[in-house]
Each structure stands twice: as C-alpha cells, then as structure tokens.
Design brief:
By secondary structure, the protein is an alpha/beta fold. The chain folds into 2 domains: 167 residues, Rossmann fold; 76 residues, no CATH class. The strands form 2 sheets. It has a 6-stranded mixed sheet, sandwiched between helices. A 4-stranded antiparallel sheet has the order 2-1-4-5, with helices on one face. Strand 9 and strand 10 form a beta hairpin. Helix 3 packs parallel to helix 6 and helix 4 packs across helix 5. The longest helix is centred in the middle third of the chain and has 21 residues. The protein is globular and about 60 Å long. The C terminus is likely disordered. The protein binds adenosine-5'-triphosphate. The site of adenosine-5'-triphosphate has 11 residues, from strand 2 and helix 1. One of its GO terms (molecular function) is ATP binding. InterPro entries: AAA+_ATPase (IPR003593), ABC_AA/LPS_Transport (IPR051120), ABC_transporter-like_ATP-bd (IPR003439), ABC_transporter-like_CS (IPR017871), BCA_ABC_TP_C (IPR032823), P-loop_NTPase (IPR027417). This is ABC transporter ATP-binding protein. Keywords: ATP-binding, Cell membrane, Membrane, Nucleotide-binding, Transport. One of its GO terms (cellular component) is plasma membrane.
C-alpha cells in the first residue's frame, strides 16, 4: 500500500487559448481532509472535472489507492473509487430521500438499477440490503428521519447532507466535495464541519474545494492553493496562510478573488 491515496502529477487542461490547468501535482495521504483553494477562475473546478472524468486531461498521470487510473469517464472513476458532489446540488428532486441514496448504492452492486426495477428474486434480496445501508447512511449524516420525504422538500443544508450520503453510498476511497458550504448559513456550515470531521474519523479521505477560507483553514489537514491553473502553495493551513504568494493572489494587485 502506498502512503498516498491519491497521487496526481502534471495534470493539464487547455480550453482553446486558455491554459486552465498547467502541470498540477497533488498528493493526498490516507485519512486526510485535503483542501483545494484559489481565487475565482483559478482552475479548481476544472481540476475536479479532470480527476473525475468529466473533462479529458491533455496530460498528467493519475494514481488512486496504489493503482494507475484513467479519468476517462465519470462511471469508470466512480468504479475506481472516487465519489463527488457538485457545486450546484444535483439530486433526483422527485424521488424520495432514501431512493436518492439507493441510486448511489447501485454503483457497487451486481443487479444495477435495471435489475432492481425488474425485481428478480436475487435483485429483491439485494435491494433489501441496499435499502438498509441507505437508511444507515441517512442516519449517519443526520437526516434519517426524512427518508420518505421527496428530496426537493428538504432544506438546503439537508440537501447537501443527502448529496454526501449518496456519494458515501458508493463506498468511495476518496470523497470529493465541490463547494459543499456554498449557499449555507452559519449554522448549516457548523453542521457541515461536524459532519466532515465525523466522516474523517471513520477513516474516509476527503478532497474539498471551498470558497469559505475560514472553514477550510479550520478543517483541512493540508491545502493546495491554485492560481491561474498553477499550484502556488502547498502545506498545512498555518503554512499556506502566511505564504506571500497566497496573500498576493488573494489580496494583491493581481488578486482576482
Ligand atoms: N468548459 C470550459 N470551456 C472554456 N473555458 C472554461 C471551461 N471551464 C472552465 N473554463 C475556464 O477555465 C478557467 C478555470 O475555471 P474553473 O471553473 O476551473 O475555476 P475555479 O477555480 O473553479 O473558479 P470558481 O472559484 O469561480 O468556481 C476559467 O478561466 C474558466 O473560464
């Protein structure tokens, strides 16, 4: 087993004339909460999209859990063990809360969604197990009492929790969260912080993009700062916070946050 859960070297992505990522290296040790921050347009979402197979990289090598993986399609990345959430919540709004998590779980099971719909005998047994696990995950993220509710009727903060439960349902080795605190009020942010600490305490590795610098600094074990598609700093929150290049990127004349 390698020490690093995720090792990325030289990730690059160009959109026409814009070099959105150039040679980004990132190493995440097991069990860490790792933060990826940077001013607007720095390339954070592009990086997420590249490592999760939504965008084809122009270059780079990608290793997860000691094995090379090719981020060529989202379902292959999910199978390799990365689950992600999106900046804009993407739930099945008309399905129940429980069903939303069950959909995530089907990535890891044999029958798949079709089998579950056709309700063969084996599928029925598997479906019962999926249902049980989905309820456990809802309890874990703190919304178990809303299992039968239609997803779109959940509060904003609870929809974010549901997204996280759905991602955890795939048994990921890496949980990648794209701005989970976006649009949250202060109380919801505190709740999110507690939840992420609880997830890490279970041994789960987390990669986090987040605009709320206070949340990131108080939560992450290590941080990479991107600016104009390049890493400009890497280290603990305390190291990153006093790095002159980071201060310049956020506040300096060239700052574009
Ligand atoms: N599909 C695309 N086509 C063309 N340009 C893109 C595309 N996606 C992103 N970009 C450009 O790449 C650069 C990086 O954008 P990206 O969204 O990755 O930054 P970000 O750090 O996530 O920003 P934000 O904090 O605002 O979400 C920006 O200049 C953006 O306009």
């Amino acid at each position: 087993m390698t020490e690093n859960l995720l090792s990325i070297s030289g990730a690059s992505k160009r959109f026409g004339g814009l070099q959105a990522l150039s040679g980004v290296d990132l190493r995440i040790a097991r069990g860490q909460i790792y933060g990826l921050i940077g001013p607007n347009g720095a390339g954070k979402t592009t990086f997420f999209n590249v490592i999760t197979g939504l965008y084809q990289p122009d270059g780079g090598s990608f290793e997860l859990n000691g094995r090379a993986y090719s981020p060529s399609a989202p379902h292959l990345v999910a199978r390799a063990g990365i689950a992600r959430t999106f900046q804009n919540i993407r739930l099945f709004g008309e399905m129940t809360v429980l069903e939303n998590v069950m959909v995530g779980r089907h990535v890891r099971t044999h029958q798949g969604v079709l089998g579950a719909i056709l309700r063969h005998r084996a599928a029925r047994a598997e479906e019962a197990a999926i249902r049980k696990r989905a309820q456990e995950l809802l309890d874990f993220v703190g919304i178990g009492q809303f299992a039968a509710r239609t997803a779109r009727h959940l509060s904003y903060g609870d929809q974010r929790r549901l997204e996280i439960a759905r991602a955890l349902a795939t048994d990921p080795v890496l949980l990648a969260l794209d701005e989970p605190a976006a649009g949250m009020n202060a109380t919801e942010k505190l709740g999110l912080r507690e939840l992420l600490l609880k997830i890490r305490a279970n041994g789960q590795t987390i990669l986090l993009i987040e605009h709320d610098v206070k949340l990131v600094m108080g939560l992450c074990d290590r941080i990479t700062v991107l600016d104009y598609g390049k890493p400009i700093a890497e280290g603990t929150p305390a190291e990153v916070q006093k790095n002159p290049a980071v201060i310049e990127a956020y506040l300096g004349a060239g700052g574009h946050a």
